[in-house]
Amino acid sequence: RRSEDLRERGKIENRIPPHLLSFVVVTHMAESFFEHDVAAPRDKNDGTWRGAVCDCLFNEARGFFEKNVVFGNEAAGLHATGGSNVQVVSNVFYEGESDAIVLERCGGFVERNRLRDNSGHGISVVGQGSRPMVRYNDVLSCARCGIRYADGAAGTGEYNVVMDNAVCGIFAES
Question: What is the pTM assigned to this prediction?
Fold first, then answer.
């Protein structure tokens, strides 16, 4: 019931134009729900599609990021940090110039997403206190690791399809 209330109160169901840095910043215990947003402006000079530096940044916040298409970013498609508790569900992240999803010192879960052809890691879980649930994701053809746990991060990963990533499938370091 709480999730449904939050979805209705914090829902944004329109197309938000990307900016130079982030098109959505959720900070300091805010609660939000983002659904069906598409982020990729067209470059006026050469006609190619390019995303914002970071499409969605959660900082000390809670929220849902669900059913979005995120591509062509210069930095992470989604970056959650500072104790955030985010639910990243049923999104597509592709052709980003960095990691698709970064969870830094936070919890929550990453579930049923499709990540492919990103220049960094598919999912990067970093920092002490990170303990997200990562499950049922397809992480394909990223230039680094499919799923990476680093700098004291922990968490649970299960039922993920991780293949054809350049460095490794799943990497864990303390």
Answer: 0.76
